[in-house]
């Protein structure tokens, strides 16, 4: 159980364009999903918490106008990197957990490696 | 502030046993997780401890002492495929996950 699917796994885009990353919970309803980014050899950095039907909660220092998060349904959250720049190149990962079942752990999507050229 | 400490890197030999330690200082505690992450991949869940003691799962065991703010992950009968980063994360009183920087484990033949 607790399968999270993330798409695409890799994307290369030109500077100034926007990229959308999808995160789906396949076998459960995730009222909350989390978006992380990870730089090489660094730990996960929480960017925002995505709540179904409401605005996302962004961590300090994360530009909400640049990283648009939409959680329109109980099984889908999307992260859009707008006007991407080379410094946005990173590994982006989403995660979710069974509601009220913390002991199951937070399941991660397979990640999206974004390269902005 | 909230803080999780774990060694940056460890080296062990195939077939041996290794213990990866994690100490934490957080605002509240609702459990501690261990994750394994291979290079270029997303983390995968290994264990969750919320009560003191040892939890065993095959070759992997995880221990928790809440009074000491301490946990360890024990890996037995090491295999080359165990070479990865091991991440310790604590769920604080707001149910927010606080992540350690990870321990890179290198297994040598």
Q: Secondary structure elements and their pairing?
A:
The complex is a heterodimer of chains A (117) and B (109).
Chain A: E1 4-7, E2 10-13, E3 19-25, E4 32-38, E5 45-51, E6 57-58, E7 67-73, E8 76-81, E9 90-96, E10 107-108, E11 112-116
Parallel strand pairs in A: 2-11
Antiparallel strand pairs in A: 1-3, 3-8, 4-5, 4-9, 5-6, 7-8, 9-10, 9-11
Chain B: E1 3-5, E2 9-13, E3 18-25, E4 32-37, E5 44-49, E6 53-57, E7 60-65, E8 70-75, E9 84-91, E10 97-99, E11 103-108
Parallel strand pairs in B: 2-11
Antiparallel strand pairs in B: 1-3, 3-8, 4-5, 4-9, 6-7, 7-8, 9-10, 9-11
The gyration radius over C-alpha positions of chain B equals 13 Å
Number of helices of chain A: 0
Number of strands of chain A: 11
- One letter per element, helices H and strands E, the order of chain B comes to EEEEEEEEEEE
| Strand content bin of chain B | over 45%
Structure summary:
By secondary structure, chain A is mainly beta.
Tell me about this structure.
The complex is a heterodimer of chains A (117) and B (109). In chain A, a hairpin with a 6-residue loop joins β4 and β5 (45-51). With 117 residues, chain A is mainly β. Chain A has no helices and eleven strands. Chain A is 0% helix and 50% strand. The mean pLDDT of chain A is 90. Chain A starts with a strand and ends with a strand. Chain A has strands at residues 4-7, 10-13, 19-25, 32-38, 45-51, 57-58, 67-73, 76-81, 90-96, 107-108, 112-116. Chain B has strands at residues 3-5, 9-13, 18-25, 32-37, 44-49, 53-57, 60-65, 70-75, 84-91, 97-99, 103-108. In chain B, β6 and β7 (60-65) form a beta hairpin. In chain B, the strands form two sheets. In chain B, strands 2, 4, 5, 9, 10 and 11 form a six-stranded mixed β-sheet that branches. Chain B is mainly beta and 109 residues long. Chain B starts with a strand and ends with a strand. At the A-B interface, β10 of A face β5 of B.
